[in-house]
Design goal:
The complex is a heterodimer of chains A (506) and B (190).
Chain A (H helix, E strand, L loop, with lengths): L6 H21 L1 H9 L3 H25 L7 H25 L6 H12 L15 H16 L1 H9 L6 H7 L10 H29 L4 H16 L17 H14 L3 H8 L5 H4 L1 H24 L5 H16 L11 H4 L2 H14 L12 H19 L9 E4 L1 E4 L2 H27 L4 H12 L15 H16 L2 H15 L8
Antiparallel strand pairs in A: 1-2
Chain B lengths: L2 H29 L3 H6 L1 H4 L3 E15 L2 E7 L2 H4 L15 E7 H4 L10 E2 L2 E12 L5 E13 L2 E2 L6 H30 L2
Parallel strand pairs in B: 3-6
Antiparallel strand pairs in B: 1-2, 1-5, 2-3, 4-7, 5-6
Classes of the chains: A mainly alpha (506), B alpha+beta (190).
């Protein structure tokens, strides 16, 4: 029997979402400060409207939804999934007010793309965008990479016993420390340390490559945020091609590879367990899949014969491949180059790499290396079972921070998530094909949205059909939250319509 | 009556200038290749001498004796959104130019949020995958000409947004007071 949520359930969800939106408003203070420092008066007003709207929403929720109960798993999942959607709507206010978007839907698209660290954009005339808005674009992808729920947990849910439930519902299962709020703070500490170090390296690189110091500093911070969060945003329309710099490409490559690793792995290394790097299933999985994809890429490039030197292979092929594999989306070529210059094999090497994606509990998207490892090991176990005596009991384990024995429930859950990813990629690809785009382009961009990558072969533009924009927003959102919270939100709607009784038991 | 010849002469001069300007613009339009064409037909133009015209945007990145700069020739390069231009449903169309430092020194204003960049005409060799620059798509320029200087945009202050901030601010004060009263009441009631 499906139970209809009580008004207390809905109030509790509303209260949680209010806190998430307050978090979004607080983050907007940073771009506001940048706009003030750059004397961009209209941009200042855009952010003031955004901040006051967020605070107003939070206060309305505080006054109307306060109940003396703690969050259950169900509430946590709804706060995460609905919280992301509402955070998108509020975060889109400064975007839309900037005048660079054809419609509010386009602004929402860019927000979801930023939060989910995808990197596809609908923004028009990027080369004339203010510093304040550029800071917001990059900051929201940096914040989204850690998880906007993690932000809320860090500052706004302290002392809430149900905090763990919304933390897990955002697609993060690792608990680095016994307390989930301390875990969230540890994630922030790791990210902020890398922000300082990475930006400094990039700034030096920018300086060597002839960028003026002031703009070079801003560009280095923005590029770091885009790369570390595996969002792939850049302040200029040409993305990484703008800089024509091997140094900056190498630094960003290192940043997005490190950013794509699991926070638990970072924490293990930070706390002295360096051997974890070599033993971890995700590192092994990433190494193997990137080697296979690189091999495919080399075959594709040798057939096309355009990029002929090792440097060209690295800068145009390998860079974009690893950018796709880590679901970053930083690019050193024009969007059209993927299907006109790369050829079929190289383009599909990148598409498949995007499908697989980065690590679980990282800033990246896709199936995740952990799941690839689980499925491969499980398959290997089945093969071993077939050639072993019937009485033999075959069990496989993986190493991810600790040894984990594989069982049917784990493998089933993993397969469900992988099938869900394949389904959203396939539906997106088919939709694009129905709208008349070439299948390679349609499947490339659909995989890019669903895996939160952000590389585009030219479909994802402000001129794409509205239905595709809405579907891509759904893909980015569902892919980032890894489906369970999204299923829970659909469950809430079903329960509201068809449920019975006075409310859920806690 | 004496005024008429003077008016006539002025009119003739003005018409002559206008015609020259139109011919000049048409000449620019006829010889230059849109960047969109270059990007979509890289194979066709690879290794060819081409001329592009547009707004110099972003930064001048000096590398020894040469400089990298970027040229936009989309509708926003004529009238940016920041200057009240229309949204045309596309992002920017840009091309990177590798020019001798001395040739790019005439570029004084680069396009961005606050400025409309200098309008330049660049002639050079288009490279689909430049072997000198790690496979980058670029133009190696042998002529860079500033045909119209850039200027700062004047952003009009948007009073509507200020009004929205004031209304929302007043609402926040009211809601905050309500929240404080509710908390006080809850404390009183234990």
């Amino acid at each position: 029997m499906i139970l209809r949520p009580s008004s207390d359930d809905l109030k509790l969800i509303g209260w949680g979402i209010g806190r998430v939106i307050l978090g979004i408003g607080l983050i907007m203070i940073v771009p506001l400060a940048v706009a003030i420092a750059s004397t961009e008066w209209n941009t200042i007003l855009d952010f003031l409207v955004g901040i006051t709207a967020c605070v107003t929403f939070w206060l309305i929720m505080e006054n109307t939804c306060r109940v003396k109960k703690d969050l259950t798993w169900f509430h946590g999942m709804i706060v995460a999934s609905a919280g992301w959607l509402i955070a998108m709507m509020f975060g889109a206010i400064p975007h839309f007010l900037s005048g660079h978007f054809k419609a509010y839907l386009d602004a929402c698209f860019d927000l979801m793309s930023g939060y989910t660290t995808t990197g596809l954009i609908m923004l028009q005339d990027l080369d004339h965008v203010s510093h304040g808005l550029n800071m917001w674009r990059h900051l929201l992808t940096y914040a989204g990479g850690q998880g906007i729920i993690v932000i809320a947990l860090t500052f706004l849910f302290a002392g809430t016993a149900g905090a763990f439930k919304i933390y897990v519902s955002e697609g993060k299962e690792e608990q680095l420390l016994p307390n989930v709020v301390r875990t969230a703070r540890a994630i922030w500490m790791i990210s902020l340390t890398y922000l300082v170090v990475g930006s400094l390296f990039l700034w030096v690189g920018m300086f060597i490559e002839g960028m003026p110091a002031g703009r070079g500093f801003l560009h280095s911070v923005w590029l770091f945020m885009g790369a570390w969060s595996t969002g792939g945003f850049a302040p200029q329309n040409l993305n990484l091609l703008y800089y024509h710099s091997l140094i900056i490409e190498i630094i960003t490559l290192i940043i997005f590879v490190i950013g794509s690793f699991n926070f638990a792995l970072h924490y293990s290394v930070w706390t002295g367990k360096r051997s974890e790097i070599w033993k971890n299933i995700e590192v092994r999985s990433f190494t193997i899949t990137s080697l296979i994809a690189t091999f495919m890429l080399a075959i594709g490039f040798s057939k096309m014969g355009l990029y002929t030197t090792l440097t060209e292979f690295f800068r145009k092929g390998y860079y974009n491949l690893i950018s796709g594999h880590t679901t970053t989306g930083n690019s050193t070529v024009y969007a059209t180059s993927f299907y006109k210059e790369f050829g079929f094999i190289a383009m599909w090497a990148i598409t498949l790499a995007m499908w697989i994606g980065a690590s679980a509990c990282s800033t990246g998207g896709g199936f995740k290396g952990l799941r690839m490892g689980i499925v491969t090991k499980s398959l290997w176990g089945d093969i071993k079972g077939l050639v072993s005596p019937e009485s033999a009991v075959i069990r496989e384990k993986i190493h991810h921070v600790r040894d984990i024995w594989l069982d049917d429930a784990l493998v089933k859950g993993t397969m469900l998530v992988i099938i869900s990813y394949v389904a959203i990629y396939a539906v997106g690809g088919l939709l694009g094909t129905i709208y008349g785009y070439s299948p390679s382009v349609a499947f490339f961009d659909a995989a890019s949205a669903g895996s939160n990558t952000g590389l585009s072969a030219g479909l994802a533009t402000p001129l794409m059909p509205t239905l595709l924009k809405v579907y891509y927003i759904f893909e980015m959102w569902a892919g980032r939250l890894e489906f369970m919270s999204v299923f829970a939100l659909f469950g809430l709607f079903i329960a509201l319509v068809r449920g019975r009784g006075k409310g859920r038991k806690r | 009556m004496k005024r008429y010849p003077l008016l006539l002469i002025s009119l003739v001069i003005a018409t002559a200038f206008l015609s020259l300007a139109i011919v000049y613009d048409r000449a620019e339009a006829d010889t230059r290749i849109p960047i969109k064409d270059l990007i979509e037909n890289m194979k066709k133009y690879d290794g060819q001498t081409v001329t592009i015209g547009g707004e110099a945007i972003g930064d001048l990145m000096v590398r020894g004796t040469h400089t990298w700069f970027t040229v936009d020739d989309d509708p926003y390069s004529n009238k940016s959104i920041e200057a009240g231009g229309q949204l045309v449903g596309m992002s920017n169309m840009s091309m990177s130019v590798w020019a001798e430092k001395i040739d790019s020194e005439d570029i004084k204003i680069l396009g961005g949020y606050k400025n409309k960049g200098d309008r330049v005409m660049v002639t050079g060799v288009f490279n689909r995958a430049c072997h000198e620059h790690g496979g980058d798509t670029d133009i190696h320029a042998f002529s860079v000409e500033v045909i119209r200087p850039g200027y700062p945009f004047s952003h009009h202050f948007q009073y509507g947004k200020l009004l929205a901030v004031l209304i929302l601010g007043a609402l926040i004060i009211f809601l905050w007071d309500l929240r404080r009263s509710r908390i006080k009441k809850a404390i009183r009631e234990g």
